[in-house]
Amino acid sequence: MHQADDERPDAVLLAALREGELEAAGSLFRRHAEPLRRAAGAWVRQPAERDDLVAETFARVLAVVRAGGGPHGELRPYLVVTMRHLVSRWSSQRNRVELRATVPDAGLDTGGADELALHRSNVRLVWSAYRTLPGRWRTVLWRTAAEGGTPTEVAPLLGLTPNSVAALAMRAREGLRQAYLQVQVPDAEEPVCREPRRRMGAWVRGALPPRRASVIADHVAGCRACRAVARGLDEANRELPGSAARLTG
């Protein structure tokens, strides 16, 4: 990435992102991530939860921008409004997905056996998703989320700058969310469904380039089986809590 990228106004970077310049997303993240973390402190106390909230906010906003929508001028007000909506949604959810070393048998605050079974199922899904991630993503997630390391503390371990660690952690958290959805996609019985389902988790998250996303959307519109899968993933994505990318235990 050129240093000049960071000096371009938000409007220019957003326009570049809409045109497919993915490096512009990194410039926007580096510009706004720290102020957004400070804003997140008004709603959540734990550093890992703030990082999750920032990562999810960026992921959702940048997905809208890549699809041609979203802000065309200053980005930060749009980010803050999106974050506020996410906080409101997450605070109303009872089901939290956590990644633990083992599935807990006791001490879980649930309303009964059904909720305990659901929690265990979610834990297994997140672990399955975590194992599909590239090694560098697993490492940065574990160092920052499970062990609570700050980007400054983790940077020497990975041979990166603190800003690069923060950006890598954001990509890893988004990767985990996509993988969490993808591991819930059943194998396709029809050959024509195999390729669309292979990237359906990323598609639901709005993370695919427009052309590839359009191919999957066209297939889903004409395939009853894949449409049912997509509806299930869309529901899972809407209920995806901020702690989905947090490792504990």
UniProtKB/TrEMBL annotation:
This is RNA polymerase sigma factor. Keywords: DNA-binding, Sigma factor, Transcription, Transcription regulation. GO terms for biological process: DNA-templated transcription initiation. It comes from Amycolatopsis vancoresmycina DSM 44592. The lineage of its organism: Bacteria, Bacillati, Actinomycetota, Actinomycetes, Pseudonocardiales. Residues 193-227 form the Putative zinc-finger domain. It holds the Pfam family Sigma70_r2. GO terms for molecular function: DNA binding; sigma factor activity. Residues 28-96 form the RNA polymerase sigma-70 region domain.
